[in-house]
Each structure stands twice: as structure tokens, then as C-alpha cells.
Queue: 3 jobs
Job 1
Amino acid sequence: MSQCIDSKTLHNRISRVIGQIQAIDRMIDDDKTECEDILSLISAAKSALNKVGQIVLEGHITHCVRDAIKNGRDDELENFAKAIERFANMQ
């Protein structure tokens, strides 16, 4: 996996998503927080997590799939179809 993506970048993005989720959790118990603010942060966290998925998928394409095509390994193309399906289900 680490050969497909920049781990540090993904860890940074995941840390931000975790921070957003923790903020949502705190906001739920805060009587002064508006529901719209919570929904806005939920949307931001979802978008950020989708971006992480996009980065992983792009890494998979540029490394794993490209190498498989180059080496004539059709089995990896089947895995790629599954990866696309999983990413689409995130949306």
C-alpha cells in the first residue's frame, strides 16, 4: 500500500477527519450549537474522507493497475473493478 500512495499525506488528511468527527461529537452535547452547524461539519468530514478515498484509488490506478497491465496480469483488472465499486459506494 505504501508504494501506491504518500502515507504522510494520507495520515495528515485522516487526522483532520478525526478532528472533525471529534468536533461533531462535542457539538452534539453543546446546547448552543445550531443543528445547521453540525450538519455543515458532517458534510465537511464526509467530503474530506471521500478525498482520502480518491487519493487511494488514484494511487491504486497509477501503481497497481498500471503495473498489472504492463505485466499482463488480468487478475488485477478484476480487483480494479472491485475498487471502483467500493469507491462508488462511498459516495
Job 2
Amino acid sequence: MQAQSQIYQLFAGKLFALSLKYSKNQQDAEDVLQDSFLIIFNKIHQYTHKGSFEGWLKRIVINTALQKYREKSTLYLIKEEANLYEEEVVLDEDNISIDFLLELIQELPDRYRLIFNLYILDNFSHKEIAKMLDISEGTSKSNLSRARQLLKKKLEKNQQQLEKLSNGG
């Protein structure tokens, strides 16, 4: 029990932040975190000391979040191929706060949010994402592109609102 408490105290903050990236709100993130720790404590004997312990924990949190969406049947991935000639949308992440960006990411439809997080924030390849979500690599690329487009639109809208406020409008 003491060892479990120490593991929880050491990693709960980081793992909660990770679960928040994959959840629509704080309540869902808390559920993911709680379920993840139950899995961690039940399967800790399966950790093989290959790779970092923290990496193993993060993988459990990500898999738990993905499983929750599969169970709820809210994960609906649009199966479409990316247009190879489509212009890449670049987000200027240096000029926005991480909290605001996280808020915008949480507003994305589930299919886009999951792929955006897996690819951009957690550095999974499209091939790995395709395998995890049982979709094609093209679908992963297309959904990522659409997520970036939606985020860009949200950022532009926010910028326009800020400009109106600063101009007294």
C-alpha cells in the first residue's frame, strides 16, 4: 500500500495532465486517471524494466483513454484519404498559452482530438495510430489535417475577438 501511494504521489500529476489531453473535460480525465491506476496496480508485475517506468505508465493512460472512447461508441473516425496536395496547416504554438491550446484541443471532435494528441503531443507515427485505432494511415493523416484546420479556425476567431476588444468594439 505504501509503495502504491508513493507511485501515485510521484506520477499522478503528470498522468492527470496526459489524461486531460485525451478527455473532453476534467471529470472524464479523472475517470481515466482512476481507471489507469487500477490497471497499473493490477499489472505492475508485468512491467519488464525495458524502457522507462514513466513511459510504461503513460502508455497505460493513453490506452485507457482510447478504450473508454471505444466503449462509449463516441469515437467515430472519418475514413477518408488525405489529399496529398493539401496545404499543411501550421499552428503558431509559441504565441499561445498551453492552457488555452489544451482548451481548444478538448473542444475538437473525439476523432480529431485523439489523433492530434497521439501524433503531435505524444509523437506516435501515423502507422502506430492506424494500428491503435484500426484505421488506415491515410485516415489518420486526414483526421490530423482536419484537426489542425479546426484549431487554426478557432485560433483565428479568438484573435479576431481579441482585436475587437482592444479596438473598443
Job 3
Amino acid sequence: MKFIFLTLFISISLFSFSQDTIQLFQEKKKVKKDAVQEIQALPDNTKGRIKYIKYGTSTGSCTGYCYSEATVDSAKTVKIKQSLPPDNKYPAKTDSTETQSAQWDMLIASVQINSFFEIPKKIGNPGANAGVFEWIEINYSGRKHKVVFDNTGPEEYEGIKNLRLLLRRITGV
């Protein structure tokens, strides 16, 4: 009788453990979030606010300043140039200038935020064969989305095509 009771107890315990384990693994599955829906669900006082836009370029192998990035917000534009890997012959350079309100207004007007947040994080094959690659990152109401693309460009994506050209012109990167 004790043997049957012990067997029954162990069976129930194992069954319970396996159910808990299955549930634990199911909970750990990543849930894909829809950034556009999250942005649209934000309170009205935070909607439509781009905090900054970053634009940068880099190359896999070169000598000198191979990495350039500019961060533009409504007040200032900060540009960084540095070598990769760091090299004492080419110390990092930082330049900060005031963002002209007309420039900021043009940037904001060129952003198609819903389209931008739907673009994949990687377009093409950035950095392949030590090639040049670029990126654009937007912080919109606290939500960040960064798109990295190769030098063939993101021409098929409306949310980035004109923005890229405008960022090049404004930042000089």
C-alpha cells in the first residue's frame, strides 16, 4: 500500500513539475511588440515629440577618421569623428553647434514616424567586405528605433529616403 501511495505521489509531483516547467518556458518566449501601436497609445502630452535624430557613417577598414556621427535635436547638433579602432594619430573630434530652427523644422517635417518605425533594424548587408554603412536613429517620445543600412541605400523605404539626404546636407556627415 505504501508503495502504491509513494508511486502515486511521485507521479503527481512529476506531472506538476512538468506542467510548471512547460508554463515557465512558454512565459519566456519573447512577445513581439508593435512600436507604432505603443507610440499611438502614449498620452497626448507625449505624442509627436521627436527628442533627437542621429545619423552616422562608418567603414569596416580604413585609416583615419572612419566613424562619423551627428546627433541633432531642437537646440544643438553634436558631431563626433573618430578612428576605428582608436588611434592616437587620430584623436576623437567633437563639434557642437546650434541647430537652426529652420533645419529642425525641415527634419521634423521629413520624418514619417509610422513608416520609420516599421523599417527593419538592418537593411541590406551593412559592413560587408569592409564597406561603408550608415544608420539613422530616432528617439520619438522616449521610443528609439535605429536602422542600419549598407551603401546601396534604403531607397525602397519611404520613411527614410528623404530623411537620409536631408541629414547628410544638414550635418555634413
